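Continuing from the previous page...

OK, I double-checked the sequence for XrtA system polysaccharide chain length determinant against my notes and this is the correct one:
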Amino acid sequence: MQNQSFDLHEMFQYMLLELRAAWRYRWHALIVAWCVMIVGAVLIFSIPNKYEANALVYADTDGLTNPLLKGVAVQPDVHQRLQIITHTLLSRPNLETVADKTGLSARATTPADKDELLVKLGTAVHINDAGTNNIYTLSYADPDRQMAQKVVQAFLQILMNDTLGANSASADTAQNFLQQQVQDYSEKLNEAENNLANFQKANVGFIPNQGGSNYFMRLQAAETQLQTLQDQYHTAVTGRATTQQQMHAMASGPASSGIDPRTQEIDKQISSYQQQLSTLLLSYTDQYPDVISAKRMIAQLQNRREALKNNAAGTSAMGVISDNPVYQEMQKSLYTTQVQIQTLATQIDLQKKQIADLKGQAGRITNVQATLQRLTRNYDTTKQQYDQLLERLNTAQLSQDATQSGNNLKFRVVNPPDAPLLPVSQNRGLLLLIVFALAVAIGGGFAYFLHKIKPVFMSLSGLRQSSDYPVLGAVSLIVSRARHASLRREMIGFFAAAGLLPLLLLLGFAFNGSLTRLVQHFFVMGPV
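Thanks. Re-ran it with the corrected sequence; updated structure tokens here:
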């Protein structure tokens, strides 16, 4: 804390010594300050005044946001429409019209000056939100109060008349453009449809998707079908061989040795009834109905067996086998399998031919597929554009009808153009304060600069620090009475001259208008 206090004390002492050193050049600083103050004041009072003219305009947007037209006509963005109108209002033709109508163009003597004047005019006109809903201010500032009012009136007239007419003309132009585009795309769509139909007609059988797929899918499906037919063919051939083996085994079985299977079957039935009869006789007499019935069945079966034996002598073994129902079913199955094998062989040949044809026509099919895709893509794109343009045309026609029925942006003048008698700029009081501060700062800086280029020692410590020579002491200056009086007069003159600077500032505040007219008259008319 002590070190900090010590450092602040040394810094304060150093600043005092520097101020005392710079005080030697106080008259130089005062002269520089006066020059800066005079030049700055002359420049400030030579800046022309600007009078701002304003007009309040109300934008009627009720027609634009009519809920009854929602989904039928285009609902424009109000702020976007206002921005468009603002840019249209400040277009170069409108700027030239305003400049010629108000006489503002007379300020320009060359084409370059006129271009510069129009650029400044476009940047000086402002359309801003007035803080109330749909109320806007149209403002322009100019050194001539009446000129500012004329310019605002001219722009207001363009806004009320020409802009609304331009909106209607713009809508007509857009609708005509859409109609022309719809007609062009209709012709393109018809041409694309004809090209696609003619191409499909000329390449029947080679068009992808006619068989439900493209070329590669058709080839893959044909090869898959061929494999399926071959599997079915091999299965049928295997089944035929199995059936033939079974029939051969049956032909070489008991029936082929002269034993009739039918006789064997009857013998089995007779044996069964005899066992049944034996069982019944254990419990009943010969007169029991079931016993009688069993004896009768045995007698009938024995008669049938004898008849079969009598017929067996004139019948071959193969005939006996052919009468077998199982053998007959196997024969039918064999015939069916044989027909199936022949049919599958024919289908396999046809399928192989189809695959060979597809592979042979691969080049043409792929070219047809690529061309068809291109034609279809062209047709789809053209149709999509045509549908979109037709929809926009219908919407534009509905929107224009709605606009003609009152659905449009309208402006109403709330306050006509008016320019106050007092200028809005420049703020000469603030500028004078800035110039006064700059004058004092520049004068003081100049005195300190002179001290730095012509330094002197203001204390013994400074003299000791500047060299290695010992300093024995200091001799005080004894000032005479005449010198005291001269210094007193000098100080009075300095403070009097320095006091005139703020006085000049106060005079500038008090006689702002008079000094402005005097200085501007001097610069325009020259000294009298």
